[in-house]
């Protein structure tokens, strides 16, 4: 028979007999397992050779006795017990050169089983069987005892022995990851590190979702998803490190399990939280409408630098603060009455989200800045974006490479069209179209709101007046319900981020308030969603 056929004789019965042979000749089970491993590997190596053997079992026991002789005399050599070339090439070559499909399946089964081992065990298996290192060498590289390494080898080999057949069956089952999406929001400075940027695959989403339900180990996730642990562990490392190595969507606990590291509400919890807020919408909208009417003259009296302003642009600038005033009152009530003993989580940037339920509240607020540009020592530009208003730019946008924003800066006090080049006139036309400028005769003026940087801190003071006694009673009712929901749905290790759960609950309010004010004729939306609405600048000479 061909030597390559030796692999066909590897079954549980043979492995048990080989272990019994080793156990009777060694001091303990660890040494027995090590010797048994050396014998098995020597037989695999022999199976790669050319030539014939008369009978399989006499040859196998001959190899066993030879390996034991070297083992007992402390003369194990890499030429006997370890393949000195590339062991991965050895196994692949074995699969390629044989005519037996069964041999290839056995080799693939070994690789599949190793792939499904957790990292600590897989590394030891690969270093011992594939890299050809001894137990002492592996122990030294891992800075642990040889006994610990032998135990890992024992456990890993046991998994392979008992589960190769099962894993072969599992491997034939297709991996089918259902579509699952999250809507994840961020607040703070994303340049510090935004963990959303490393969660872009459906595989990532499924791992996050499993860890949302309960903390899970890499092997548990691998089994649940039918994906090799190797890939799961790599993904877990990415999801824990995030973009900056400090803040990820997952965290690893001391027991080796992975848990959610940000507020993520499932579909049912998110909708219940939304409903608590939307129940108050009629009162919220009526209060806001009356407040705007009462404060009309104060809004118009703010010292904007534009040649002319109108209340519509002012209200679009203020709309996020106006609509958030109720949630701010709820937050204050939550802090005072329900979470006063909880230390708030503090970091430069945080994310929070919900499982996509077909409703996306696409609103946000991005700001950018520049120094020494267009005659100004300091410039800040902001824009909001919601269902009715498209964004002009995102965080990180460079004003020095944006000719339209530069024209808006140059036109605050008026810019003579006749002084512009043909290229600049073309940019002006685009700036007019997107709402940055308007034309009056031969002059261009900035249409988006402009204020002095020194007035920036009080820009929203009028709108924040809504937080002072206008919603107190209703906010306390909502806070009590929201607190109960947060305590039941948010993991205890994330309770310090309860304020983000409150922000998620409030998400439907902004669009609802906007639609109410449009219906009342208080707000006029931008044509085609893009214009001066919701965009403004703060400047300093």
Describe this structure in words.
The chain is an alpha+beta fold. The chain folds into three domains: 3-171, Butyryl-CoA Dehydrogenase, subunit A, domain 3; 182-261, Arc Repressor Mutant, subunit A (Orthogonal Bundle), CATH 1.10.10; 268-309 and 319-360 and 456-521, no CATH class. The protein is 52% helix and 12% strand. It has 22 helices and twelve strands. The protein has helices at residues 12-23, 29-47, 56-72, 78-81, 87-97, 101-116, 119-130, 135-142, 146-171, 202-213, 218-225, 229-241, 267-278, 281-294, 296-301, 311-337, 403-410, 422-433, 461-464, 472-489, 498-505, 507-519, and strands at 182-188, 250-252, 258-260, 263-265, 349-355, 364-373, 376-385, 415-416, 437-440, 443-446, 449-452, 535-540. The strands form four sheets. Strands 6-7-12-11 form a four-stranded mixed sheet, covered by helices on one side. A three-stranded mixed sheet has the order 1-5-4. A hairpin with a 2-residue loop joins strand 6 and strand 7 (376-385). Helix 2 crosses helix 9. The longest helix has 27 residues, at 311-337. The radius of gyration is 34 Å and the shape is elongated.
